[in-house]
């Protein structure tokens, strides 16, 4: 608990409390927006890369939470635009498909952290307000190994256009085994 207090600032310590949330999952975006407003942020929302970039050009947010995969493209495009318009902004990448190459790409483009969905408002606030010069504290509720495996399998399945045989071939597993995994609910 003491490390959390030392590693994060309060939103009141920042001159600009503007936050842009870019996510195409409307219920999640609305819920996160309400929670972040209660925490003291001045929130604006965007549901696509196009709307996100337009919003960045007009508002130049100090903070941003950007989903990696959006319906009309890649959230990294929004991150690049934010960095161009406000290099001091603090950006968090969110995704349901966490993997090392995308995390590295997000950090190279200027994101300060990378969180796997579903992230709650407390995790987002902690990441946005963390002192960049201090080591981050470990997550309170990290994804289980089973959940990470499930997310990876579903990501490959989506990338293979939901073709079970192609997905099984790429994952080097039996098609029936894959079908059983796909039919189950996600682990916690």
Summarize the structure.
By secondary structure, the protein is α/β, with parallel strands linked by helices.
Explained architecture:
- The protein is of the alpha/beta class and 188 residues long.
- The protein has two domains: 2-129, 3-Layer(aba) Sandwich (Rossmann fold), CATH 3.40.50; 145-183, Arc Repressor Mutant, subunit A (Orthogonal Bundle).
- The protein is 48% helix and 15% strand.
- The strands form two sheets. A five-stranded parallel β-sheet has the order 2-1-3-6-7, sandwiched between helices.
- Helix 7 crosses helix 8 (164-171).
- It is elongated, with a radius of gyration of 18 Å.
- The model is unreliable at 1-6 (pLDDT under 50).
Key words describing this protein structure:
alpha/beta, Rossmann fold, 7 strands, disordered N terminus, 188 residues, 5-stranded parallel beta sheet
List the helices and strands and how they pair.
Blueprint: H1 2-7, E1 18-22, H2 26-38, E2 42-46, H3 49-59, E3 63-67, E4 69-70, E5 73-74, H4 76-85, E6 90-95, H5 100-109, E7 113-116, H6 121-129, H7 145-159, H8 164-171, H9 175-183
Parallel strand pairs: 1-2, 1-3, 3-6, 6-7
Antiparallel strand pairs: 4-5
Helix pairs in contact: 3-4, 7-8, 8-9
Give the helix level as a range of percent: 40-55%
Give the strand order of the largest sheet, numbering strands 1, 2, ... along the chain.
2-1-3-6-7
Number of helices: 9
Give the overall form: elongated
Query: How is the biggest beta sheet arranged?
Result: 5 strands, parallel
Q: Which residue ranges are poorly predicted, with pLDDT under 50 across at least 5 consecutive positions?
A: 1-6
Taken as a percent bin, the fraction of beta residues is 15-25%
Number of strands: 7
| Gap from first CA to last CA | 24 Å
Q: What is the CATH superfamily classification of the largest domain?
A: Response regulator
Structural class: alpha/beta
**Over the alpha carbons, how many angstroms does the gyration radius reach?**
18 Å
At CATH level 3, the topology of the largest domain is: Rossmann fold
Residue-averaged pLDDT = 82
> Which class of the largest domain in CATH terms?
Alpha Beta
Tell me the domain tally. Answer: 2
Q: CATH architecture of the largest domain, please?
A: 3-Layer(aba) Sandwich
Order of helices and strands: HEHEHEEEHEHEHHHH
């Amino acid at each position: 608990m003491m490390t959390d207090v030392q590693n994060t600032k309060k939103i009141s310590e920042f001159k600009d409390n503007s936050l842009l949330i870019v996510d195409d999952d409307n219920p999640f975006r609305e819920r996160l927006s309400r929670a972040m407003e209660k925490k003291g942020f001045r929130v604006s929302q965007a549901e696509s890369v196009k709307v996100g970039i337009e919003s960045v050009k007009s508002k130049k947010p100090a903070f941003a939470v950007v989903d990696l995969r959006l319906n009309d493209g890649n959230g990294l495009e929004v991150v690049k635009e934010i960095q161009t318009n406000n290099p001091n902004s603090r950006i968090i990448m969110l995704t349901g498909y966490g993997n090392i190459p995308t995390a590295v790409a997000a950090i190279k483009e200027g994101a300060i952290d990378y969180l796997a969905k579903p992230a709650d408002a407390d995790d987002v606030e902690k990441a946005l307000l963390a002192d960049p010069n201090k080591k981050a504290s470990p997550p309170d509720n990290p994804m289980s190994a089973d959940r990470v495996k499930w997310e990876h399998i579903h990501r490959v399945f989506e990338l293979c256009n939901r073709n079970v045989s192609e997905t099984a071939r790429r994952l080097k597993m039996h098609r029936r085994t894959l079908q059983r995994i796909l039919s189950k609910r996600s682990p916690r």
